[in-house]
Amino acid sequence: MNFADDFPILSQTVRGRRLVYLDNAATSQKPRAVIDAIRDYYERDNANIHRGVHLLSERATELYEAARGKVRSFLNAREDAEIVFVRGATEAINLVAQSFGRANVKAGDEVVLSAIEHHSNIVPWQMLCGERGAKLRVIPMTDAGELILEEYESLLNARTKIVALTHVSNALGTVNPVKAMIEKAHAKGIPVLVDGAQAVPHRPVDVQALDCDFYVFSGHKMCAPTGIGALYGKRAHLEKMPPYQGGGDMIRMVTFEKTLYNDIPFKFEAGTPNIEGAVGLGAAIDYLSGIGMPRIAARENELLDYATTALSRVKDLRIIGTAKEKAGVVSFLLGDIHPHDIGTILDQEGIAIRTGHHCAMPVMERLGISATARASLAFYNTKEDIDALVSGLEKVRAIFK
Ligand SMILES: Cc1ncc(COP(=O)(O)O)c(C=O)c1O
């Protein structure tokens, strides 16, 4: 089971060493199948979509819409119309905040977020609340990085207009019990957006089983190119929401007096979209589905257990984020060595990890730290990668002795 062979980039040496790529939460590597699909598209099918009368336009349109169908099936949404292509999770959240948010949130209302959100699921809501005179309410977390569910329930009230919640934390690896949290919100008639940027690449996601109102993710974290992602929204919401951007393709009819908007999802896809990205995302979904998401989740769990045990044995190493339910993210501190120094020394060994606040500054503040070193796993990682990380960290310790 050596998936790394499917990823051309992983066969190189960097700084004279075998590349050990452990920065998958930032972005994943791309398998040959995705790279080939993009090249084939440009060599054979490239044209603009939805309006051409010629064969290439027909083919490009088919590929783009087939990719939408693949996303629908990957998330188990009811229909293709509930899948809107966007640049990524960030754009999807901004779309919902600006479109659904502006239509539904007014002065005195509240938006509920959690203490472990990525900045992408904080700032758009902060902007909306600032504009509307509404208030952000934050579900607190424990020292282990788990949300305090009793506090969550007490935050939900008649002023709450939406709950926006990450499925998996990029900084701590915590997997939130989103299904139960959605049920609690729905019991009070409150819609829920789930940020699935760190979940969709690593485990099966079923939006109908979750019954979330919106679900967002980025392609580049799941083997697809950058600049493509998707927003899932229930038809009833998307139909009521005003367009986010105006332009070509999102209209049915335009005069200087007025515009009739197109149907969903096209109403939200103004201008020429990232066709190449959608083709690549479709190929990534085929590739991941070929392996099987349950198998990917099991493999990553095994790697996470191995990494947690191996890293716990490194003297002075403290894992940050010890929730019971975790995905393949291990954030850590090593004595009082600055995480940036850890990252720089590991880089000399050919090991790529992330250091810093991971776009989750409130998490760092809550824990009283400024940064962590973070190793984040993908199914194509191996136990040897983790062994290399451990010996790299021993070198770091030796240098700082
Ligand atoms: C939990 C989470 N949400 C949102 C994002 C933003 O994703 P993107 O930059 O692809 O829009 C990330 C990226 O790190 C993330 O980890």
Task: Say what oligomer this is.
Answer: single chain
Largest sheet: 7 strands, mixed
Largest sheet strand order: 4-10-9-8-7-5-6
The average pLDDT is 97
How many extended strands?
A: 17
Strand content: 15-25%
Question: What ranges have pLDDT less than 50 throughout 5 or more consecutive residues?
Answer: none
Q: Given the C-alpha coordinates, what overall shape results?
A: globular
Question: For the CA atoms, what is the radius of gyration?
Answer: 22 Å
Helix content: 25-40%
The rounded distance between the terminal residues' Cα atoms is: 39 Å
Give the helix/strand class: alpha/beta
Which ions, cofactors or small ligands are bound in this entry?
A: pyridoxal-5'-phosphate
H/E series: EEEHHEHEHEHEHEHEEHEEHHEEHEEHEH
Give the number of helices: 13
Task: Tell me about this structure.
The protein is an alpha/beta fold. It is 40% helix and 17% strand. It has 13 helices and 17 strands. It has helices at 32-45, 55-75, 89-104, 123-132, 149-155, 178-187, 207-210, 235-240, 275-291, 293-312, 339-348, 361-367, 383-400, and strands at residues 13-14, 17-18, 20-21, 83-86, 110-114, 135-139, 160-166, 192-195, 214-218, 229-233, 251-254, 259-261, 317-320, 329-334, 351-352, 354-356, 372-376. Helix 7 (207-210) links the parallel strand 8 and strand 9. Helix 1 (32-45) packs antiparallel against helix 9, helix 3 runs parallel beside helix 4 and helix 11 (339-348) crosses helix 13 (383-400). The radius of gyration is 22 Å and the shape is globular.
